[in-house]
User: Fold this.
Amino acid sequence: DLFGSVEPLLPSLREDGVAVWVLGAGPYPEGVVALQELLDAASEELQPEEVWEPEDMNDTCLYIFTSGTTGLPKAARVSHLKAIMCLSFYELVGASSKDVVYLALPLYHMAGSLLGIVGCLGIGATCVLKEKFSASHFWEDCRAEGVTVFQYIGELCRYLVNQPQ
Assistant:
């Protein structure tokens, strides 16, 4: 859905060595990796560990987008080790596979994607994704989905406390 916003930047991204991957129907310009085509062509057979296991767990696994609270927004490096550690996040705070986790944080942020989604995968919990946080619909959503855990950052709890009963 957001490819149109990135497309004008493709020449400068290529100059900087940035790869652009897109999931969705193409066609896409040369140099853009269409993930759906690769997924459709991929084998169901698991590859040997030496193909997918990182040589060094401190190597870059992925980049996340920081919100810019300490300056301008920017990409931040996440190592394989840190990504794997996120699998244990909910276990560390006492959640289990029986929990239903409500997540309304942006998925381009580490708290949403790695701690939230990957954390749910780590314990086998159900994750309820909300496209946008709404204090006025929060409790209604939680009741409807059987939510037992809510992940938040920043001001979300203050917004909830300031809602009428």
